[in-house]
Write a structure and sequence with these properties.
By secondary structure, the protein is α+β, with helices and mostly antiparallel strands. The protein has two domains: 12-171, no CATH class; 186-232, no CATH class. The protein has nine helices and five strands, in the order αααββαβββααααα. A hairpin with a 3-residue loop joins strand 3 and strand 4 (93-100). Helix 2 packs across helix 3 and helix 7 (186-197) runs parallel beside helix 9 (215-232). The longest helix has 18 residues, at 215-232. It is elongated. 29% of the residues are buried.
Length: 240
């Protein structure tokens, strides 16, 4: 396994397209505007979290990026560089060892006394989860801050209560890195333009969804599409 943390540089156009679809789906509480969805997806892209996980697990509170402890833990394991091991977890203490290349680099412990002093929310209902969340968040800041490219918090650290899930630390799986789109070479580009101009307008969606296009390539596809619109009328679809 590589000892590098790889994050995908997602094109702005791709983020905008996903934000529009997520917002229009109305399947995410509190997200009905494209701008709100865009911020979540963009923040996720910068710290290596896929779009759906970002929409579900990222919250912007008081201008700060917060994510749930389970997603934070998955990012640690999926980083390819770090790992963690739960030493002890019960209703009075959460103790987590952080590892790099299989070797311990530090321990993060958070007790019920620490939680009460900090005013941690939901202690009466989910003490184990809340203690784990704070131990995980502190450990990431102390021992593996490069998992993320910016400071991140759990909602509880900012005095908010996030939807609580039953955290099963033994079953946390690494996040599989998203394979970047490949480039479209000039020969394939010329062939695509010819086919689109000849009437295969549906080819545009496949190309945009499959390849990482330059602005110039996207303009050429649009020009070929406009030829179809001119010939077939307004019923033809133009890539936006």
């Amino acid at each position: 396994m590589s000892n590098e943390i790889i994050k995908r540089d997602v094109p702005i156009t791709e983020i905008l397209e996903m934000a529009k679809l997520f917002a229009e789906s109305k399947m995410f509480d509190g997200i009905s505007q494209i701008a709100s969805a865009f911020v979540k997806i963009k923040a996720g892209a910068e710290i290596g979290i896929p779009a759906f996980a970002a929409m579900s697990g990222i919250h912007i509170i008081k201008g700060k990026l917060t994510i749930g402890a389970n997603l934070m833990a998955a990012c640690v394991k999926g980083s390819g560089k770090y790992d963690y091991k739960v030493v002890k977890l019960d209703e009075s203490i959460a103790s987590v060892d952080f590892l790099q290349s299989g070797k311990a680099i530090g321990n993060s412990t958070f007790t019920i006394a620490d939680a009460k002093k900090a005013g941690t929310q939901n202690l009466d209902k989910y003490p184990k989860n809340m203690l784990f969340a704070r131990a995980m968040s502190n450990g990431v800041k102390w021992f593996c801050p490069d998992v993320f490219t910016m400071p991140v918090y759990t909602p509880e650290e900012l005095g908010e209560v996030a939807p609580v899930e039953d955290i099963q630390h033994e079953e946390v799986k690494p996040i599989t890195p998203v394979k970047p789109k490949s480039k479209l070479n000039e020969k394939a580009m010329v062939d695509a333009v010819k086919r689109i101009a000849a009437g295969e307008i549906q080819l545009i969606d496949m190309i945009v969804g499959t390849f990482d296009l330059t602005d110039q390539q996207l303009s050429r596809l649009k020009e070929a599409c406009h030829v179809i619109v001119a010939e077939q009328g307004e019923g033809a679809t133009i890539v936006s």
